[in-house]
Every structure is written in structure tokens, then in C-alpha cells.
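Example record used in the benchmark description.
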Amino acid sequence: MTDSIRSGCPINLALEVIGDKWSLIVIRDIIFGNRRHFRELLTRSDEGISSNILADRLKTLTAQGILTRADDPTHRQKGVYSLTEKGIELVPVIAQLAYWGRRHLPVTEELSIRAQVMEEGGDRLIADMMDELREIHLGVKRKGKPRPSVFARLRAAYEAVVARKRKPLPVSRRDTKA
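Model output (C-alpha cells):
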């Protein structure tokens, strides 16, 4: 055990690695948003992480073996971040946080619909999601008969809520009288 570890408690040790807001947001964006480049992680999140914090969290998550960084074959100056198996195993943890947040906090429908679909899909959906992430990030082909994409299902649920909310409400007869 190194001097920097305060205790051998598994909860404490996990929080030492992923217990700050930004680490979980970065992991969330890689899992659910398929954001794999620094610039995508920096600019395509509602929370507004600063570049120095993002760089620090990516460095820490890579050093902890949760992410890997490889050169992007399409652009020599970019890196591509991928989840490791250790990172993929955080999916059930993040799912449970989402379920709890959906039940107890003032979430928006469009940002909580994915958590609802995941909770309704249960352990099978989470396992399928993890297998899909292994294929995307680790190149491990899924075994068994092909199943529909979990991420396509989550995206469709989100887009349906957004489309429904954008649809103008019908004007009632009472509203048209002057």
C-alpha cells in the first residue's frame, strides 16, 4: 500500500479514482456520447469542463487503467480515448447513479429517458451495453446471435422525447377567441 492511500476501504479507494464530478462526467460522455477525442469531450458536454481539468482527468483515468489513449489514424495530432475492461465494468455503477438521480432529483425528461430505458431493460440490457462497448473500444466481437444496438435504442428514446417536446401544441378553440 502506498503512502497516498488513506485507507484500504474499497469504497474509499474507488472514490480516490473516480469520485470527483469530472471523472464521472468524462466516463459518461465516452460511454453514452461516444466522445473519444479531447475536443469532443471539451465542447460537447452541457457541464462545461475546462481544458486543464479535462486534461488532468484524462491523464488520471489513463494512469488508473480505466482509459487508454492511442494516436488517431485520421489525424496525427489527435488522440483517441478508449475504455478498458476496467472502464467498461463501471457501466453498472453509472447506471445505478442514473437510476437514483432519476428517482430523487429534479431531472429533465429528455436527459433521464436513457436511464429509464436502462432501468426497464434491467441486467440484460446492461450486459448487452457492456458487450457493445467491448466491441467498440476493445475490438471484441459479440458472441451469440446479433442483437439490436443498445445505444441506438437509447438514442431513439432520447430523440422521441425531444421531438415530442418540440411539437407545437394544438391551439384550442378557447385560445383563438379575442
